[in-house]
Design brief:
Length: 172
């Protein structure tokens, strides 16, 4: 991936975050919590990429480091840690603990699917053969989402304790 592609991905992540903030009706405190969770998830993701590289599970062929470029992890902060964390917050707010478990589990399935399709289409990541890299990738996605949710809860409180940023017109 080129720097220009990564910058474009960061712009798209910022737009997606803005749209998600609007539609989830998150308060400033909740958004700050989601971004704190995004930062924690990005740092975890960088370390997981280093460990996966050392184990020979995957690597990024366009860099000479055991992790991806820093611009790639900003997408994690803004979208996967921030925006997707807000979606998880709304799922948890609506369905409680079981909703949170289902959300994290679904992200553990979605993540490797996205990564392997992306690898096949763009060659931006190279996976080793076998089931172990797939399971490791799933664990990385699930743990990153769980960490983002946990950091958001620490920063902004439980999901059901929030009042939403704006009331529906029917209640005004």
């Amino acid at each position: 991936m080129t720097t220009q592609q990564l910058l474009l991905a960061n712009c798209a992540a910022l737009v997606l975050l803005g749209v998600t903030i609007y539609f989830t009706r998150a308060t400033f405190r909740r958004v700050a919590g989601a971004l704190a969770g995004g930062m924690a998830a990005a740092l975890l993701n960088m370390e997981q990429d280093r460990l996966a590289y050392a184990a020979g599970w995957w690597q990024y062929p366009f860099v000479n480091t055991p992790h991806g470029p820093v611009l790639m992890y900003i997408v994690v902060v803004l979208w996967y840690g921030g925006g997707v964390a807000l979606i998880g917050w709304r799922v948890t707010r609506r369905f409680g603990g079981w909703g949170l478990v289902a959300f994290i589990g679904l992200m553990g399935i979605y993540g490797p699917t996205r990564d392997y399709l992306g690898a096949a289409l763009t060659k931006s990541i190279i996976f080793a053969p076998g089931i172990i890299p797939v399971l490791a990738d799933a664990a990385c996605w699930a743990s990153g989402m769980a960490l983002a949710q946990g950091m958001m809860r620490l920063t902004a409180g439980p999901a059901r304790a929030d009042r939403l940023a704006r009331l529906p017109k029917a209640l005004v």
